[in-house]
Amino acid sequence: MPKWSEEMLMDLWMSLLLVWITCVPCVSTTPITGQSKSTQTGGSAVVASGLGEGQRLLSRAKRGWVWNQMFVLEEFSGPDPILVGRLHTDLDVGSKNIKYVLAGEGAGTIFAINELTGDIHAMKRLDREEKAEYTLTAQVVNADTDEALEPPSEFIIKVQDINDNPPQFIEGPYRASVPEMSAVGTPVTRVTATDADDPVYGNSAKLVYSILDGQPYFSVDPNSATIKIALHGMDREMREEYLVVIQAKDMGGHMGGLSGTTTVTVTLTDINDNPPKFSKSLYEFVIPEDLPIGKMGGKVKANDRDIGENAKSTYSIIDGDDQGVFEIITDTQTQEGILRLKRPLDYESKRSYTLKVEATNIRSEPSGGGPFKDTATVKVTVEDADEPPVFSKPMYLLEVNENAPINTVIGTVTARDPDSSTSLVRYFIDRHTDLERQFNINVDDGKITLAKPLDRETDMWHNITVTATEVRNHSQISRAIVAIRVMDINDNAPEFATEYEAFLCENGKPGQVIQTVSAVDKDDPIQGHYFDYRLVPEMLNNPNFTIKNNQDNSISVLAKHDTFRRQKQEMYFLPIIVTDNGNPPMSSTNTLTIKVCGCSKDYIVQSCNVEAYVLPIGLSMGALIAILACIILLLVVLFVTLRRHKNEPLIIKDDEDVRENIIRYDDEGGGEEDTEAFDIATLQNPDGINGYLPRKDIKPDLQFMPRAGQHSGPNGVDVDEFINVRLHEADNDPTAPPYDSIQIYGYEGRGSIAGSLSSLETASSDSDQNYDYLREWGPRFRRLGELYSVGESDRET
């Protein structure tokens, strides 16, 4: 018996299925009274009926469709349309004039029906992945009238799947990472492929995964598509990246199945599996001895094949004969060890150093067994350099008395050249620190002497800077600070702490304390101040005052009796000698002023002046003089006022003389009718510009001569000066009354069409005057007309 392969069996099965679907089944009918019988075969339906024709007409027609779901293969292509199935009804007995009608999804476009036989054909190639099934409606109608003979019935045509879609990796290509040195079987990542074929029907969507490229480093699970480590000891430092090709094949991976591939880029991540390693086992550096503190003397570096944090190292000096002269720090940017100077080098004392430097990884793996390390030897050779002089001390403290004479030696500074070839040293004072040039220094031996007298009370400390310079190389300079303290001597006498002003009550008791006195001294003796107070010899036996020592560098001044009176003596002066305890002692005489005052019963000072004693109301002499002066001033003003009122004539006698007191104006202005430019020169009276017009309202006691003013010519009138002169004359006229009066202006102008408004020069009486015309001159004269009209009406009444 021949052996059939799986592919041959599959092809045979598909051919049989196609024939079974497309063939038309045979149907046998058996007469059954009052019933219908249907038989289904192969997806087509045939309906048979055993009733006679007359009986079918008398009974209600029953539905006679019998079918199941119809199937059609996708992607079927041939020269003729493919038969999907056949429809048949028991009404179709050969003599009936009927036809089949198809409606629904794809009817007429994708599917067509033979109206006479009911055969359904697929007109186009179908794709299950695009549409898996179609729902249609079949109906039997009269071929002539299109009248429905049966109600429509719905059926489904399903598209059967074939393996026409390969697997696809939608999310590919993939990238994954795994730590280096991972164990075999460690999962790396998982890929996923999809197949558009029907996963239910057959094995078209059953996928199997395999690895095409990437062996022997990686493997893939055929079902879950999980990629795993397949080789032990994969080192990132040897190879960091791998490209893996994964295949997915449908039909369960059998022959004839479709396949798809994707790539997975696998990167090995770093772990700390490599120690740092110095590029050399011995480093040699030459460093000049004048290298400043903190400056770099050399660099070392340990390389690490790891990357990132795993490659970072820290450096340290673990051994050597440097004795703390050097230190090494880590440059975080370059991962280098920087050798720096921690203490000064001295070629003359030590010319070489040997150090042992260690580089240690900062980070370690949990299973690494501790941090990785490496060591190297560093040899440092000190190079001789021309160094500046070195002072014996970085700072000198000297003392000198404030009374020391000029050229006194205060102290000495010393410096030496540390080089093997010794050079002489010269000393100088930095005059920026000794602006007043109070000190000098010997350039050869460094002795500091006094150049000017010192006063401790002015400056207690003097800080100067001394420089030392090599004779053979003036650029080599060193500096040292010299602090000079001025020692105190007793050259200041003590004196009162303040200017005391003591007050003594007249009603005081003998022995009462008048004032407590203390002293101060500008000197500052080591043992402190102690002052001795005593009265001057001529005041030792005075009958009024005595002093008492309070044992705290102060004294109390006491009164000896209670018969002090201001009328007898209002002020006493008590000289007191104050002596300090210096060597030699210094003393000064200070005078205490004591005033005798009137006090209350509680010894509260009220008044200390003699004149206040005689005033019954307690007013001082100054207040009394001020009051008397005010009274005299008021009397003088009253006298002058009365005298002027006595000499002043009566100006206004009755109502009829009011207008007679109006001062004469020789001319008036043009008024509102004057449209020409106003000439200010008309304010001057040509007839009396240089004359003096005396007052006419009073008779002066003495003639007042006005001072000559500055007059302008007709073409250059200064109105402001003219008015100021008149104002000054009025203010300084001794004949003027103490009240305001109308001043005389002798000239106002000429050429006014209004004429004169004054009644002094008119020959007519008041009763003959008519002032109604003033109202016609404009608003400026209307008010004047109203005033005159009111005057006339009042006179008539």
Q: What is the topology?
A:
Elements: H1 6-22, E1 36-41, E2 44-49, H2 53-58, E3 70-73, E4 82-86, E5 98-104, E6 111-113, E7 119-122, E8 133-142, E9 153-160, E10 174-179, E11 187-190, E12 208-213, E13 218-220, E14 226-229, E15 241-249, E16 259-269, E17 277-278, E18 282-288, E19 296-300, E20 302-303, E21 313-320, E22 326-331, E23 336-341, E24 352-361, E25 373-383, E26 390-391, E27 395-401, E28 409-412, E29 415-416, E30 425-429, E31 439-441, E32 447-450, E33 461-470, E34 477-487, E35 495-496, E36 501-505, E37 513-520, E38 532-535, E39 545-549, E40 554-559, E41 571-579, E42 587-599, E43 605-607, H3 611-614, H4 621-647, H5 719-731, H6 779-796
Parallel strand pairs: 3-9, 10-16, 18-25, 27-34, 36-42
Antiparallel strand pairs: 1-2, 4-7, 5-8, 6-7, 8-9, 11-14, 12-15, 13-14, 15-16, 17-20, 19-23, 21-24, 22-23, 24-25, 26-29, 28-32, 30-33, 31-32, 33-34, 35-37, 37-40, 38-41, 39-40, 41-42, 42-43
Can you walk me through this structure?
It is a single chain. The chain has 797 residues and is mainly beta. Among the domains are: 92 residues, Immunoglobulin-like, CATH 2.60.40; 102 residues, Sandwich (Immunoglobulin-like); 107 residues, Cadherins (Immunoglobulin-like); 98 residues, Cadherins (Immunoglobulin-like); 113 residues, Sandwich (Immunoglobulin-like), CATH 2.60.40.60. Helices cover 11% and strands 32% of the residues. The chain is built from 6 helices and 43 strands. The strands form 13 sheets. Strands 36, 38, 41, 42 and 43 form a 5-stranded mixed sheet that branches. Strand 41 and strand 42 form a beta hairpin. The longest helix has 27 residues. It is flat, with a radius of gyration of 70 Å.
